[in-house]
UniProtKB/TrEMBL annotation:
<dbReference type="GO" id="GO:0016874">
    <property type="term" value="F:ligase activity"/>
</dbReference>
<dbReference type="InterPro" id="IPR038765">
    <property type="entry name" value="Papain-like_cys_pep_sf"/>
</dbReference>
<dbReference type="InterPro" id="IPR051705">
    <property type="entry name" value="Gsp_Synthetase/Amidase"/>
</dbReference>
<protein>
    <recommendedName>
        <fullName>Peptidase C51 domain-containing protein</fullName>
    </recommendedName>
</protein>
<dbReference type="InterPro" id="IPR007921">
    <property type="entry name" value="CHAP_dom"/>
</dbReference>
<feature type="domain" description="Peptidase C51">
    <location>
        <begin position="1"/>
        <end position="49"/>
    </location>
</feature>
Amino acid sequence: MPHGHVAVIIDVLPNSIRVAEENWDFFYWSRNYSREIPYDFINGNYYIRDNYTILGWILLDDKYNQTQPLDQSTINTIIQLNGSSPDFICRNNAIHHYFSTSYFFIFHLLLCLLFH
């Protein structure tokens, strides 16, 4: 990918993650994510199975405690500011998987390495 890349994990499934990303392909998404990427958990480590080489790490330094879980109060603020709510739920065989900021930070580090 010659011009950079940003990906955000929007769902963590038992064996894969779903990401919303830019500069991956140039098609409209049929769902609220661009693709699903498989991962393995081996000896206490996560390994994302993708075709791109990891180029570096991004670490989150939250010394000012600015990261907070996505709760109903935050969703209400988003709705008030934007007039509607984003789709925070991905559907997988009628099971709802809710966005989790803790999973986001764990896998965001790995995705940044893969999609830099």
